[in-house]
Amino acid sequence: MKTLTLLRHAKSSWKRPDLGDFERPLNGRGRTDAPNMGRRLARRGLQPTRIVSSPALRARATAEAVADALAYPHARILWEPRIYEAGVQTLLTILRGQADEDAHLLIVGHNPGLTMLANALTGDRLDNLPTAGAYTLTLPIEQWRATDWGIGTRTLLMVPKDPAEAETATSPVTG
Q1: Where are the transmembrane segments (predicted)?
Q2: Sheet holding 104-109, edge to edge
Q3: pLDDT for residue 162
Q4: DSSP-derived secondary structure for 109-121
């Protein structure tokens, strides 16, 4: 059994129109939401064995903030350029190429690809994985290359604005 968490990058800034899309940083809300979502994943025991992220600045900042909250070393993050602007087929190819010893992958990327992948793997009808939203599913496989359409089961959908789990950047992490 494999576990996959799809995490859309946190909210990005549009204050610098001179920056290209790849170079857009996180805005204030994004800088708060990313570590909060990491802490929420940690509280649920969702510790990835590998983080694979788009190298776009907003995804990189999200992956690093989440890694910090999960006590996951930055040096182990795999920066995968194909995730940036990837469609569902490219994302599936990336998944199928992951190391089988990794039982839980956390993929940090972009829409619409992540939403489309979540729907394709589970048959869900998720309209939009929001910024900093996390979608976790289980796959009844032993090898990542066996990942295929419709075989997954959603186990969690977390969004930053969930009032039941609201926290601030300064709130303590509790067990």
Answers
A1: none
A2: 78-79, 50-53, 104-109, 2-8, 134-139, 153-158
A3: 81
A4: E-TTHHHHHHHHH
Residue 13's pLDDT is 93
Does residue 55 belong to any structural domain of this protein? yes
Q: How many domains does the chain have?
A: 1
pLDDT in the model for residue 73: 98
Positions in the chain short of pLDDT 50: 167-175
Note the pLDDT of residue 40: 97
d(CA 23, CA 96): 28
Residue 174 lies in a domain: no
Reported residue count of the chain is 175
Q: Is residue 117 part of a domain?
A: yes
From start to end of 1-152, where are the E strands?
A: 2-8, 50-53, 78-79, 104-109, 134-139
Range of the domain at 134: 2-160
| Per-residue pLDDT, 165 | 61
Give the CATH number, domain containing residue 64: 3.40.50.1240
